[in-house]
Write a structure and sequence with these properties.
2 domains, Aspartate Aminotransferase, domain 2, seven-stranded mixed sheet, 14% strand, alpha/beta, Aspartate Aminotransferase, domain 1, 17 strands, four-stranded mixed sheet
């Protein structure tokens, strides 16, 4: 009883789910949605001011948000749910040039037709959230794609665990390393490191106010990062400090935690020589190396920034997120846990996995990678335009200007107050960027790699110049 009959087997040569997806009515619905999106996208082509008729309701929404979340948002941003490329429409009717993209999440910009189409695939899934007991084939494809990309130049990456956030991906990376090196319990990280907001990640993050009132869950020792103004001196300083740490705490380090490009710390690039000089003694000491690429993935000449710097042989554990829509922890066979320490009810939504796969396609088809790929070419153009502004307004803006599609500059005197002031002025003018780093505090951009054009960069530079002129009057 309960067994399928022979007739039912022979009459259904395909899955019901496959028949649903191939149904002509679904195809027609896709066509109509794509047509409607294209028609309405034409109305969003440039920055525009808010609709006065919507301001009152918008302020009410912001007040409700402040009450429910226990405090006001960092800036008064509430999306309408639609945009066009790097332009986003807000619920007050204004349109902003979004060059921060939710801190790097919108890799194809807003309301991209192919990303919407991929999300429709997910809408047909019966499971909204995939996880430990409810995996669907797309999660396998996403994991295999990330592993394949990581292994291109020989990195010993064999496994991938999807997760719902960058913090969770980083937690899993740390658990793998600690499990592998037990009873070692210390971590080496860089000054200004940022790894997330969970209890363990807050302890690893080099921001005292981010762990205010929290117990220290980890013992972390910090190295100075590469100084772009004096790379040789900073390399010697970091190497000397590393040897001092390894000698002081022999066999006690479970991991070296490194962002190849300092993210929240200020968008300062590493280099092959800098990282190799640190990774070689770490490898000799048997310390696992973790590359945190939650922010840097897909923004340099290669999919992974560790590849961009030629560090494949040192990649033991790697984390990705943001632009990939679903986050992930990748690791080699040697680090496969011997106990059941990696399991999550939810590893990602069906929508995030489907759109993540499409995002990888768009990055490839958009010619983002390679030494002459669009990430490099656009960075050079953007940096040259910022440098022109720096020459014109030396007291208001200065470099360095980041790496790849991680762009930053130092505003004014480099104080947190002035950086935030300029950021809010930019917001009012119509350009979205966000603060990062400390001493100095900088302003960063994360333009969508798959769709940004020189025309978008020109528009950003024009809006930034307008903002700088207003800012100069504010600071006197």
């Amino acid at each position: 009883m309960g067994q399928p009959s022979e007739s039912s087997d022979s009459s259904h040569s395909t899955l019901v789910a496959a028949d649903l997806r191939a149904d002509s009515r679904i195809a027609e619905a896709r066509r109509l949605i794509a047509e409607a999106v294209a028609d309405h996208s034409r109305r969003i082509q440039d920055v525009q001011a808010a609709n006065p008729d919507l301001l009152s309701s918008y302020q009410q929404l912001l007040s409700r948000l402040s009450v429910t979340r226990g405090g006001p948002p960092f800036w008064p941003y509430l999306s309408s749910g639609f945009g066009q490329g790097p332009y986003v429409e807000l619920a007050d009717g204004s349109v902003k040039l979004d060059f921060i993209g939710g801190i790097g999440v919108h890799g194809a910009g807003h309301s991209h037709a192919e990303m919407i189409d991929a999300a429709l695939d997910a809408a047909l899934e019966d499971t909204v959230m995939q996880g430990n007991l409810q995996q669907h084939p797309p999660s396998i494809k996403m994991s295999e794609r990330l592993i394949e990309l990581a292994r291109v130049d020989g990195a010993a990456i064999d496994h991938c665990l999807l997760s719902t956030s960058g913090a969770m991906a980083n937690e899993n990376a740390l658990k793998i390393a600690l499990h592998h090196k037990y009873p070692a319990d210390r971590i080496i990280a860089f000054d200004n490191a940022f790894a997330g907001r969970s209890l363990a990640m807050a302890a690893l993050t080099d921001r005292a106010n981010y762990r205010m009132g929290l117990p220290l869950a980890l013992n972390v020792d910090y190295l100075p990062f590469r100084d772009p103004a004096n790379p040789e001196r900073s390399l010697r300083w970091a190497v000397d400090e590393l040897h001092r740490m390894l000698n002081r705490h022999p066999d006690r380090y479970a991991a070296f935690w490194a962002e190849p490009i300092a993210g929240e710390g200020g968008y300062y690039p590493g280099s092959h020589d800098f990282f190799r000089a640190l990774c070689e003694p770490l490898r000799e000491a048997g310390v696992p190396i973790i590359f945190d690429e939650v922010q840097s993935f897909s923004r340099t000449s290669r999919p992974y920034a560790f590849q961009h710097y030629g560090l494949d042989e040192f990649a033991d554990i790697v984390t990705v997120g943001k632009i990939t829509q679903v986050c992930a922890t990748l690791y080699g066979e040697a680090f496969k846990p011997k106990g059941p320490i990696l399991s999550q009810t939810f590893t990602g939504s069906s929508s995030s996995i489907a759109t993540g796969l499409k995002m990888l396609d768009l990055l490839e088809s958009g010619n983002c990678f390679g030494r002459q790929g669009q990430n490099v070419v656009r960075h050079e153009y953007f940096a040259s335009q910022l440098n022109s502004l720096a020459e014109k307004y030396p007291a208001l803006i200065r470099g360095p200007f980041g790496e790849g599609m991680m762009i930053a500059f130092t505003p004014g005197d480099g104080s947190a107050d002035q950086a935030k002031q300029l950021m809010m002025t930019m917001y009012e003018v119509g350009l979205l960027g966000f603060v990062c780093g400390s001493d100095p505090t900088r302003i960063r951009f994360l333009p969508p790699p798959a769709t940004t054009t020189n025309e978008h960069i020109d528009a950003a530079i024009s809006l930034l110049e307008t903002s700088l002129l207003k800012f100069s009057k504010q600071v006197g």
